[in-house]
Every structure is written in C-alpha cells, then in structure tokens.
Amino acid sequence: QVQLVESGGGLVQAGGSLRLSCAVSGTIFSINGMGWYRQAPGKQRERVADITSGGSPNYADSVKGRFTISRDNAKNTVYLQMNSLKPEDTATYYCNRPRSLWSWGQGTQVTVSS
Prior knowledge:
Layout: E1 3-7, E2 10-13, E3 18-25, E4 34-39, E5 46-51, E6 57-59, E7 67-72, E8 77-82, E9 91-96, E10 108-113
Parallel strand pairs: 2-10
Antiparallel strand pairs: 1-3, 3-8, 4-5, 4-9, 5-6, 7-8, 9-10
C-alpha cells in the first residue's frame, strides 16, 4: 500500500518561503510522475505543480515563477519550494500521483499571514 507523508508546512509572513517534502513508500517512486495539490477551506482541491518521472515540471498559473517542484528518486521524495508566499497560498498541501491518484496523506498546513 502506498503511503504519502507530507511535511514542512508552517506559519509564515507574506513574502516568506517554505519548503515542503513528501516521502513516498510502497511503490517504485522513480517511475511515477508526482504532483503537489492544495485545498483551502471551502474550496476544491487543486493541483499547483507536477513533475514527470523524467523531471519535467509543470505549474499552475497562480504559482508560476514562485514555486519550484523537484524530486529526489534516491530518497523517494518530492519537494515543493515556495517563495514569495501570499495569503492566498494558505491551504493544506498534499502530494499524489496525477495519472492515477493514490489514497491521500494527511497533508501539511501552510498559513501565510499578511
């Protein structure tokens, strides 16, 4: 069974940075594309970034130029570097496989104060 464990969230002021990590177990990580998603209260979950198995990234317009997704196949981990954070980035952040979703992890809370 695949397990997803997100970490690295916290409270940060607008303009600050955070780096999220997602440790993946129970699958061959290197062959899977991965994505970062977020869900704010009262809103639908949205994908903010994804990265192919080969390392090619893709970003939602709302985070382009501010967020960077990366992966370390040796550590079975995908990262999300978030810079220039805005209050509207406040949400619970999750990782998953875009092609065919696994069960969701617990997520990590990101709160950006103005």
